[in-house]
Amino acid sequence: MAFVGQVLIAVFFGKLLTALPQRPVELAVAALFSVGAVLLFREGGKVEEVDDESSPTAKPIGPLPVAWRSFVVVFLAEWGDLTQLATASLAARTGEALSVAIGAVAALVTVGAIAVIAGRSILKVLPITTVRRIAAAIFAILAVVTLVEAIRG
Q1: What is the C-alpha to C-alpha distance for residues 66 and 55, in angstroms, rounded to an integer?
Q2: Contact 14, 88 (CB under 8 A)
């Protein structure tokens, strides 16, 4: 549901973006990707502690509170991130808000499922700092590509 909410917001703002000149919007998106890359790179060296839910002192909390926490975390984390920006941009460029929304929700649900299933396995192979640095590099590449598109017009 968090993904659906974020996609609907992105598609709505994507429609609003069509009223703005394309070059300034692309420059703003490139700037946001750049900021995201810098933040991910800076955070890449920090490792937060994760509570081990299998510890003997951990209290079971039940499925509904876990679902609610997941919703809140995902909904808040998705604000202004790559997927929301890309969804808004695609909705603005194509004018096909419903098609973009359906595709974006399907992609986000798929990625979310992969993250849930593979997340711990990936972190056993790659440290979180490496994952964050890879994400930072992807954001930097997207910033450059978007900037080049904005300059070329």
Answers
A1: 17
A2: yes
